[in-house]
Amino acid sequence: MLRGRWLLPGASLALGAGLGAAITARRRAEGDAAEGLLGRLPVVPAVAAAGPPALPGSGQAELTKYGLPGLAQLRSRESYVLCYDPRSRSALWVIEQLNRETLSGTSDRAACDFQEDDSVHEYHRATNADYRGSGFDRGHLAAAANHKWSQKAMRDTFYLSNVAPQVPHLNQNAWNNLEKYSRSLARNNKNVYVCTGPLYLPRMEADGKMYVKYQVIGKNNVAVPTHFFKVLILEKESGEIELRSYVMPNSPVDEKIPLERFLVPIESIERASGLLFVPNILKRTSNLKAITAGNKR
To answer: Which of 74, 84, 117, 291 is most buried when burial is the number of CB atoms within 10 A of its CB?
Structure first.
């Protein structure tokens, strides 16, 4: 269970936190489709540039003469889109599309192995050796079982860029239950878009001050999140969009606790993560209903 006093901006992380929210209106027409999964997503939670941005003002191009030291690192793979965080050696977020088709197939998890992501610079990527003997599982962000439709799609989930250090009890129990629940929703809706990522939340220490503290593992100093979030965007057959957002601590959690107890207002995740979901969703539709513990059906 939770130790110390963790604070999630805009809401308490106490189980059962959350206030209901509902937004209704008409649905807008979808934008032009782009190639691959990235073009099918209704929302990408962070803006990322493919190349150096145009800088305003005369002579500003001279500033980029020798390039920029860093830009948002997007990876678009067969089963998910990922934004990589080179400092934590993991992803800021991973988003995937689930439906009846993606959950069907004969892909074999036993044929997959965790592997370094060689598209990430060697200074900034995790290795299997970092996890060895650490006491943490290599916890999938985009879950392998979500992508039985293609062996390659399942194999792509085993890149360490799609992994974060996760307490084994959480990974194998309560978090696994949340992944299973996500899949059950996908079987009963048109599409479910799942965005998952780490959180590093401040905690009040004995001196009354707030600190952000987290462990690192391995020679590459892979960051251990204090919490994880999962945002579910449900496309219903009726055209309604339903939003469910969860936060779990990266610690042992009793799997008997109902998942609804981990529902939090989406604003809490947006404030804590630095990401935005609702404004981007509303660019595609305004027929949106947010489900939290207070208004669960």
So the answer is: 84
